[in-house]
Every structure is written in C-alpha cells, then in structure tokens.
Amino acid sequence: MPSLSAARYGKDNVRVYKVHRDEKTGVHTVTEMTVCALVEGDIETSYTKADNSVVVATDSIKNTIYIKAKEFPVNPPELFAAKLGQHFLDKYAHLSVAHIDIKVHRWTRMVIDGEPHPHSFWRDGEETRNVSADISREGITIRSGIRDLTVLKSTGSAFHGFVRDEFTTLPEVWDRIMSTDVDSTWTWKKFNNLAEVEEGVERFNKTYETARNIVFKVFAIDDSASVQATMYRMCEQILEAAPEVDKVAFSLPNKHYFEIDLSWHKGIKNTGKDAEVYMPFPGPNGLIKCEVSRS
Ligand SMILES: O=c1[nH]c(=O)c2[nH]c(=O)[nH]c2[nH]1
C-alpha cells in the first residue's frame, strides 16, 4: 500500500524588484531577487484524495510574496525570508513549515565622473547572495551564502604528492592556475522564533561581508596545496569570525587551465616556466566539497 512520505509545494522563480527612494537626498537603493516559497503541512489529502480545500494556490503564494515585499524590508534577505515564512504559518493553521529560498542579484551603483550615481546601477557579475530559510512552529533554520563568485589566481597554487598508480597520468605541479566559482553556505544556530531573528539583525549583512572578504583574502594569499586545503582554511576563518554560525560548507569546481605545447611551431617554448598561452578547459572539471562544523 503506497503512502505519501513527503510533500511540499509553492511558487518558484518569483522575480521581485524593490526600490527605496530617499526623499531628502534623491538617492535610490534597489534590490532584485528571485524567490522560491514552498509550504508543508496537512496537505496530504490534496495528493491522495484530490481535495483542494487544503490548497493555498501557488498563485496566491506568488501574490503574497509581492504584498510582503511591499510591507516588509527586503534587506537583509534573511529577515525577509523569515518574515515571509512566518506569515504563511500565522495565516494558515494547517501549514507547518515554509521553505523560503531567495537569490539576490547584483545591482552595483555606477560611479560617474568619480561620483556615486543616485539612480544608475550595473550588473557586476553573476554572483548572487543566497538565503534558504526553513520556518516551522518549532523554530527557524537559516542558511546564508554566496554563489557563482568566479575567481582566478595566476600563481600561488600547487598540486603534488597525490596517489600515483596505474590510473595516474596527471603530472605533479608546483605552480598552476587556480580558478573556481565559489559556492559557500553558512548555517546559523537555530533561532527559536522570529523575534530572535529580528534581534541583532545586522549579523546577516556583517557576516555576508566578512565571509566574502575571507573568501577573497584566503584565495589570494594562501599558498595553496590543493583546493581542499584552501577551502578548509576559508571555513575555519568564517567560523572564527561569526560565532553565531554553526557550520560552513563549500562546493568548488576546479576549473582547469591546461598548458599548450607549441613547440611544433618553430620550436616555440610555451610549457613550464615559459607557459603564457593556456587552454581554459570547459570540462570535465574537479568538484571539491566540504562542510566544517563547530566542535
Ligand atoms: O586541488 C586539487 N585537488 C584535487 O583533488 C585534484 N585532483 C586533480 O586531478 N587535480 C586536483 N587539484
């Protein structure tokens, strides 16, 4: 006899833009985000008995996202996610969990003739700030993070001493290019309720800035023995800087840049110390993951 073992539903890819206009200065601040809101609860009969009386339509969920974006601040996204999720639980007694995912897209203020422009912005990369919040009647779990922050260093990375056997062709290297798309997530200690999220709400922007700076700094200055060793250092430093964070995870593709032997053409030297022209390799790529928790 089959039974429904898990179910959640809602609206995905809800695009939201919000502008704040400072009436005194005329300076605008804009936020663009993509929201996914899914709910769980006593909704089993909608699947098993075609009973729509328990269904808050996904269209209504989408409308709610726009209404709450108007009513509440959308910054920091962690707060908006928690308040939006709490609304679904407060409004509908039969719902037990709201899962709110928010991706914040970059709109960086233009600098024109050396001055920050009051209402013009540009997309400086595909990097996003991400939040994933699970709001239940028992408490609120929030994960914050960075995705698709593409970085490269042209030296200061090595990879040697790895297993060598009959499957190995990779030469050891003491100097290589290192590049990745940073995907980092830090999980906050569980909040008991919305009031705890709201109290000390500045923690979210502060930790986002700190974590992003740590990613840049460790990536740049670490004399990297491997992607594994470098990402572990990033985790350690983020945990040290953010006492309210319980664990930090990274997922990093190792985007390979291969040397090209050009000696077939007039004996050109383009390998080892002479390497200047490389082939950025589309794939396959390494994929290295870790999660570091506070002990
Ligand atoms: O930093 C690295 N870690 C690996 O596990 C690995 N494997 C590989 O082929 N190159 C690399 N580089």
Automatic annotation (TrEMBL):
Gene3D superfamilies: Urate Oxidase
Positions of the catalytic residues: K11 (charge relay system), T58 (charge relay system), H256 (charge relay system)
Residues given in the record as urate binding sites: T58, D59, F159, R176, V227, Q228, N254
PROSITE patterns: URICASE
Protein's name according to its UniProt entry: Uricase
GO function terms (MF aspect): urate oxidase activity
Family, similarity comment: Belongs to the uricase family.
Catalytic activity, EC: 1.7.3.3
PANTHER family for the chain: URICASE
Catalysed reaction equations from the record: urate + O2 + H2O = 5-hydroxyisourate + H2O2
Lineage: Eukaryota, Fungi, Dikarya, Ascomycota, Pezizomycotina
One GO CC annotation: peroxisome
Residues binding 5-hydroxyisourate: F159, R176, V227, N254
Positions that bind O2: N254
